[in-house]
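Justification of computing resources. Each target in the renewal requires a structure prediction run like the one illustrated here; the chain below, 165 residues long, is used simply to show the kind of job we budget for.
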Amino acid sequence: MPMIYFTADTHFGDPRVLRIDRRPFSTMAEHDAALIANWNTVVGKDDEVWHLGDVISKRGDCETLLGALNGRKHLIIGNNDPETTTGAQGWSSVQAYAEMVLDGHHLILCHYAFRTWNKMGKKSIDLHGHSHGRLKPMPRQFDVGVDARGLRPVTLAELLTGKKL
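Resulting structure tokens:
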């Protein structure tokens, strides 16, 4: 049965993440190869991945990147996603915001973290990126960005059980 994964803030090809986010790589080539390998280790060909924004630098080839990554990929647009990313072939869908029900949980998907969100009082869950693991979460709110999640996509079950990566 296909799995559903979530990720954000991969910033492929963007050297700022090595400095600003202190990712443990000497070069962008090493960074990008490791993130692709991490993705493809957990995500199978038939799985689905929701990328919550900031995929690749504006100078990067998003279509080639998407072809190297396993799964059917959906984009929730981030602040660093140019037209070369949002218009790339290889996305199953592209939008600024989405909601879904997964395993009985109502999920809110956006690049940005919310203070309040739809159906919050009914125990919905906010998944976001953008903050690179630096934002103190609220209950039922999870940063799915690679800096907060072991540099790889994660499942809802991993988020809910608090499994350390």
